[in-house]
């Protein structure tokens, strides 16, 4: 159809594909994939037949296909549909599962359709970051947490109980972030620093501190950006000095955390900023 839009992107960091189909009316014949597909419906209603079981799927539903799950689908409301999906090769899934569980295991997801799943918001955010080619480690955090939730609730994988929190390592991560917030930081950096698996680090840090390592990094960056804005440093320079990838990202996160834009916050202190001494 003329109004169809099909977008495909490969993420070299996560090594997964992301698809977005908009305005689709196509009926897909019975087929299967050699990889995992995790998708969610944004708009429209479809009839799905998967492994000889029938479903009606709607906006907000997550659909999961294991490798070799046979499936076919078509519109049932006479309207177009939009959906997003990520495709994960078995070897990439196996690596992710090993990060989460510490064991080499190729999972089988036991539910093909998750109706009105709360995980759709997480999947959508991850998908957007892949399409926008975001490199920050929030993307890897989202991927790890998504896989953990799906494994724990909808697969044949048994997650082990969380062991005692590695307090020294977590403190080391906090100190490292507070000293290096203006630099690019990755989960690989933090994993190498502590000797912990990335997932173990993510889960332990979040449980101990209350927010994820990425959120901690962004909070530290915002705290230091506030100090610069209070001195009259323009928002674009404050964003650069505190490690934000662009001013738009900085502005959005600043307003989300503080309730004001960086410019609005800077204006509060305009009458209290001491002029810099003139150089003779």
Distance N to C terminus: 70 Å
What is the H-and-E element order?
EEEEEEEEEHEHHHHHHHHH
State the secondary-structure class. alpha+beta
CATH class of the largest domain: Mainly Beta
Count the domains.
2
Task: Provide tags for this entry.
280 residues; alpha+beta; Jelly Rolls; 2 domains; 6-stranded antiparallel β-sheet; 10 helices; 10 strands; disordered C terminus
Q: Could you please describe the fold and organization of this structure?
A:
The chain has about 280 residues and is an alpha+beta fold. The protein folds into two domains: about 5-155, Jelly Rolls, CATH 2.60.120; about 165-270, Homeodomain-like (Arc Repressor Mutant, subunit A, Orthogonal Bundle), CATH 1.10.10.60. It has ten helices and ten strands. It has helices spanning about 90-100, 120-130, 140-155, 165-180, 185-195, 200-210, 215-230, 235-240, 245-260, 260-270; strands spanning about 5-10, 15-25, 30, 35-45, 45-50, 55, 60-65, 70-75, 80-90, 115. Strands 1-2-9-4-7-10 form a six-stranded antiparallel sheet. A hairpin with a 2-residue loop joins strand 5 and strand 6 (about 55). Helix 1 (about 90-100) packs across helix 3 (about 140-155), helix 4 packs parallel to helix 7 (about 215-230) and helix 7 (about 215-230) packs across helix 8. The chain is globular and about 70 Å long. Mean pLDDT is about 90; it is low at about 275-280.
